[in-house]
Design goal:
alpha/beta; Diaminopimelate Epimerase, Chain A, domain 1; 4-stranded mixed sheet; 8 helices; about 10% strand; transmembrane; TPM_dom; membrane; transmembrane helix
Length: about 240
């Protein structure tokens, strides 16, 4: 039997198939493995004083039930006192951005004048680093001192987050304290850190998400590195019809 080798045209078809397969594989892996993009100020929804947008959760760490509770708390606060609180959660910051620079820029963008800022409170958390910041207007600052505002960031937000990324607990604690103070009630005080074992969070941690994405990429690349050479060998060495 005469041995038949693949023709040039057949080889071109094989190369085209291999290129298509490789492109499709990396596209499929990329759809599932690309990390969440960074969030810049101008990627945020536009909010103005008087708007009924109270919670923006770009990181998807607050449950819908708790987001509803937060929104109702802040809506009632605005209706009864004129003081407005907004909570923002982002996945990660743009390169070179800090939580403080982001908070300053977002506060200025949403409330560009002193009058617009006057009764505003903005609380921001970046879940990648778990850094948070708070900004207040002049009228709010007369009720909510800088020391108390910092305690809300470090204690009401910081303690539950440090105890196991308990974002829901953190924002509910902060909203309750802000609601009391800004409605003219006595400050209920900061929570006390609990010396207990970490309880597993019901939400994926930022670092866990990054690890999962990296794992998917590695698996995809391993598959590509295994399958593509096998296909090449099959088509060029073991081509049907030889």
């Amino acid at each position: 039997m005469i041995e038949q080798h693949p023709t040039t045209l057949q080889k071109q078809h094989v190369l085209q198939r291999l290129l298509f397969f490789t492109f499709a594989l990396f596209l499929a892996v990329g759809m599932f493995a690309l990390p969440a993009s960074a969030t810049g100020v101008y990627q945020m929804p536009q909010v103005s004083a008087g708007d009924s947008t109270w919670v923006i959760d770009e990181a998807d760490v607050i449950s819908r039930i708790n987001e509803g509770k937060l929104s109702r708390t802040f809506q009632n606060l605005a209706n009864n006192s004129g003081n407005e609180v907004r909570m923002v959660v982002i996945r990660r910051l743009d390169f070179g951005e800090t939580i403080d620079s982001f908070a300053d820029e977002l506060f200025d963008t949403w409330f560009p004048t002193d009058e617009a800022k006057a009764n505003q409170t903005l609380l921001i958390l970046d879940t990648l680093t778990n850094n948070s910041a708070i900004r207040t207007g002049e009228a709010t600052n007369a009720i909510l001192s800088d020391e108390t505002a910092q305690s809300i960031v470090e204690d009401n937000i910081g303690i539950p987050v440090r105890e196991g990324n308990k974002y829901n607990e953190a924002f509910l604690s902060a909203s309750n304290r802000l609601g009391e103070i800004l409605s003219g009630q006595p400050d209920p005080g900061a929570p006390v850190a609990r010396d207990t074992l970490d309880v597993e969070s019901t939400f994926t941690k930022a670092e866990e998400t990054d690890t999962a994405n990296s794992t998917i990429w590695v698996i995809g690349l391993l598959i590509a590195a295994t399958v593509i050479p096998m296909l090449t060998y099959f088509f060029y060495v073991g081509f049907p019809g030889r």
